[in-house]
Amino acid sequence: MIPEHVRAALAEAGDDRIVYDLTGIENQLDTLRAELPGVHVRFAMKACPVDEVLACLADRGAGFDAAGPGEIRSALRTGVAPTAVHYGNTVKSDADIAAAYRLGITTFATDCVEDVRAIAAEAPGARVFCRVPTDGAGALWGLTGKFGSEDPVAVLAEARRLGLTPAGLSLHVGSQQLTVRAWAVAFDLLAALLPRLAEQGIALDHVNLGGGLPAAGYLAPDGTPLHPPTAAVFAAIREGMRRLAGYGLDYVVEPGRYLVADHGTVRARVTRLTVRKSPWLYLSCGRFNGLYEGDKVRYRLEFPGHEGGPLMPATVAGPSCDSDDTLGGGPVPVPAGLTSGDPVWIHAAGAYATSYTTMGFNGFDPLACHAVRAERFRPIAEADWDAVAELEAAAYSSHGLSEGPAALRSRAANSTSFVLDTGERVGGYLIALPYPRFRFPDLSRPERSVFGSTNLHLHDVVVDEKLRGRGWGRRMLRRLKAIAEAQAYERISLVAVDGLAPYWASHGFAPHPGLTPPDGYGPGAVYMSRSL
Ligand SMILES: *Cc1c(COP(=O)(O)O)cnc(C)c1O
Questions:
Q1: Least confident interval from 112-126, 168-182, 512-526
Q2: Which residues contact 234 (CB under 8 A, 6 or more apart)?
Q3: Which domains does the chain have, with CATH numbers?
Q4: Each residue's pLDDT tens digit, 274-305
Q5: Which segments cross the bilayer (predicted)?
Q6: Is 47 in the pocket of ligand 1 (CB under 6 A)?
Q7: Which residue has its alpha carbon closest to ligand 1 atom 13?
């Protein structure tokens, strides 16, 4: 269940940590989008407020559901537009509303007239969506009582009266919702409310379906798999949206757990396996430093090196001097041969781990966060050249710019060129070589000599069409820059072809007017460079 690249990272780890699999998280987002086409995804940040995770979701086009100015700032640091972030918390102070407004946030959750009045005062003209209550039945965490208006028509009418835009309705079926019925009930609620709003002349533009989508990797406290009916949940949501098709609404989902839970693994240690009245297994990680939800779900534990050995039942607990720091559900089978210091891998621990961590209860530190991917950059190997040539031809043949494998290969300086290895194939390459400033390769023939220069010429960078729009171009350039700096280059140059000069300008490259690349580079080619 844990993919190979994550297992490798866990096996190498010398100390406790949580390892997030960015590739897994991206794939999860892709799956969600395929299940709910056209629905906007806004990640509920509290489930995993880790910068690398937020950045990878933003790079893939997700927005964010933020609960206050702190989360809003983290979301905006990823570079997303403020319109891709909403203030999704119905509980907020005047000062926090004003701070969000100053940060450019224009859409706010609400559920009472007091909050609507505050939004009208502190964020004049904002868009508001009203949360409706649900009973949380069928969810492991119900989220009932604290949120939701019993009279959303009155709340949205008051918003309109105060100059706000009544923009939507929202709900949350409860976290780790394990029934399909909860979604049917939610759409019944929406179907009843929308005509009542229409009667008041309030036409909404969207419905926010909240979070609650289940993760697959937990066990129930009794040790049986949870088997969330995920496919049926998606079908029920699609069916619900079809039912409301007449209203012309946009849809937003705010998954937290669903996107990250199954793609985070904790690497901790055995503190001690003891037998007191009954056997207890104490781990270096417990409810106060990463496994807070361990009272409601059972995490799968894996003890590398102890596969196939005899087992004994033990109650599992964290390291602190607090009896709440015990994972629930009673004894679980663990290897009888465990000794202090043995590693343990805790599966599907990616949601609400870092955010529910204490500052260091009893001096036990929060887990360090690491992010890994299946994809990696590595030097170009002999066996890669067929794939590289194919990518080159696919990228340039139609523009008549392909130089062919021999010429390309002659320019692939070892220490400054690399491929993007997806774990399955070559998904891209970058070729750069030292080259005198203001000169550039002749595309019609291979390189004849090797230059020494403090200028690094980025000759070519290609990402497979199927992998475009996922931030790989940016990452490859970041890597090139790091390589150039490490090898004491002073400048990077390139020839922008195919009208891409504005793209390169956005990466800090400036043109050198008067220096015109030859015809081989196609019409309008521009020589550009930047210092490091
Ligand atoms: C926490 C939260 C979510 C995410 O819930 P999950 O069950 O983790 O998907 C979504 N929306 C709101 C408003 C939340 O508070």
A1: 512-526
A2: 35, 36
A3: 21-261 (3.20.20.10), 264-372 (2.40.37.10), 376-531 (3.40.630.30)
A4: 999 999 999 999 999 999 999 999 999 999 99
A5: none
A6: yes
A7: 88
Q: How many residues does the chain have?
A: 532
Burial 266-296 (b: 16+ CB within 10 A, else e): bbbbbbebeeeeeebbbbbbbbbbbbbbbee
Measure the CA–CA gap between 342 and 102, rounded to whole angstroms. 50
Ligand 1: which residue has its CA nearest to atom 10? 211
Full DSSP string of 448-486? -SPPP-SEEEEEEEEE-GGGTTSSHHHHHHHHHHHHHHH
3-state SS of 266-318?
Answer: EEEEEEEEEECCCEEEEECCCCCCCCHHHHCCECCEECCCCCCCCEEEEEEEC
**Distance from the CA of 213 to the center of ligand 1, in angstroms?**
9
Which residues, 6+ apart, have CB-to-CB distance to 488 below 8 Å?
454
- Both tokens of residue 149? 């208006």
Based on its alpha-carbon atoms, the radius of gyration of the chain, rounded to whole angstroms, reads 27
At residue 429, what are phi and psi to the nearest 5 degrees? -150, 160
Average pLDDT of the residues in 379-384 = 96
Please tell me what DSSP assigns to residue 499. T
